[in-house]
Design a protein that fits this description.
The chain is of the alpha+beta class. The chain has 13 helices and 14 strands. Strands 1, 2, 3, 4, 5, 6, 7, 8, 9, 10, 11, 12, 13 and 14 form a 14-stranded mixed β-sheet that branches. The longest helix is centred in the first third of the chain and has 17 residues.
Length: about 375
């Protein structure tokens, strides 16, 4: 007999986090999270976004066996400030049984109707910096620590339950050898002189963190026109610094400032931790930390974010960032660059990379249904 129960204890949260470890045990492509860090995401004491969001976690059981999970999320900033009456769902995993996926989504539907929301969409996290989308293409490529992986049947379940595609995301990769940097080097020199710009490189995390608040403010400005954007609040900035920026080697974060030392461009890259996380199997200790440290020397990197101030867009600022990264990557012997999910209709970001011979490796979608 199937039952769906709300998670109400720390043990329940741990079971929620650990369910995919069984579901994807045989997959060479799934990348597990660090269990202790993933649990913090669902804790109001450690995740400040829960001050502005409502969260309920559910587990599906057949008898005593867990067969699925889902997170029901309402981002009240999105609902009240942007007047987007959206019910979010995420962390959606289940066995290949339509009864299970239907029962889990029914719980989200119930909450959405109780709150008088207009529609539900997912898989989504709390904000634009969380994981997004059901994988629909590229199942034979290893995942990343910042994206969800899923079995091919997920798409069929959502379609069978009358969900429609809302947004599509692409992931690309390119080889370092395919980067023709000469034109960017020439443009870099011209742009610096014309607009009084300069690059900022860092060797110490503390030096970089002095600009971190400016970076998040610029993120809000440069991404505000994209669909589903939700502004990062001041209280969330400190959480993001600890969760992401302290985790990334400072030489992989590049800033561009104007003559007044105001940030006009940024990019964030991190080494691929995928294989290290697979070896860790969700545990940081006793040997997980060793795998993470070793992964800092990975020859594959992931571009997480790139943002240009609206006043400087289409003025070549990206040439400064690309030139700086090329110098860093050449020193470190990087062989492959990969981009994390980008909206398929974000033509501006796709245009930046068109000369790098990008290869499409994954597609993913969010799905929507009216309540």
């Amino acid at each position: 007999m199937l039952s769906v129960k709300e998670v109400s204890t720390k043990k329940g949260v741990r079971n929620f986090v650990k369910f995919p470890f069984k579901l994807y045990k045989q997959s060479p492509y799934w990348v597990p999270p660090i269990i202790s860090e993933e649990m913090k995401v669902f804790d109001k004491a450690t995740n400040p976004i829960l001050k502005d969001a409502e969260l309920k976690l559910f587990l599906a059981y057949r008898g005593s066996k867990i067969v699925g999970r889902i997170a029901a999320i309402i981002n009240w900033i999105e609902v009240n400030t942007q007047n987007t009456r959206k019910m979010r769902f995420g962390w959606f995993d289940f066995i290949d049984d339509l009864e299970v996926s239907r029962a889990l989504l029914a719980k989200v539907t119930e909450i959405g109707k109780q709150q008088n929301l207009a529609f539900m969409e997912g898989p989504l996290g709390f904000s634009n910096l969380d994981k997004v989308g059901v994988l629909t293409y590229g199942f034979d490529h290893i995942g990343t620590m910042v994206s969800w992986y899923n079995h091919p049947y997920y798409k069929a379940h959502l379609e069978a339950l009358e969900f429609k595609v809302e947004k599509e995301y692409f992931e690309h990769k390119h080889a370092f050898k395919d980067i023709k940097i000469e034109s960017y080097n020439r443009l870099e020199s011209v742009i610096k002189k014309r607009y009084g710009l300069k690059e900022l490189n860092f060797k110490k995390t503390q030096e970089m963190l002095q600009y971190a608040d400016q970076m998040f403010d610029l993120f809000n400005e440069s991404y505000s026109e994209l669909s589903s954007f939700v502004k990062i609040t001041d209280i969330q900035k400190d959480f993001m610094k600890k969760k992401f920026l302290n985790f990334i080697a400072p030489e992989y974060i590049k800033f561009v400032v104007n003559k007044d030392e105001k940030l006009v461009g940024f990019a964030v890259v991190m080494p691929s931790f995928a294989e290290a996380l697979q070896k860790m199997k969700g545990k940081l200790f006793p040997f997980g930390l060793f795998h993470l440290i070793k992964a800092q020397k990975s020859k594959s990197v992931n571009f997480l974010l790139i943002g240009i101030h609206p006043k400087y867009q289409n003025k070549g600022v990206h040439a400064i960032l690309f030139s700086e990264y090329h110098r860093t990557f050449k020193t470190k012997g990087i062989t492959e660059c990969r981009r994390t999910p980008e909206l398929s209709d974000n033509k501006a970001i796709q245009k930046l990379w068109r000369e790098f011979n990008p290869q499409l490796i994954k597609k993913r979608c969010t799905y929507k249904k009216d309540l």
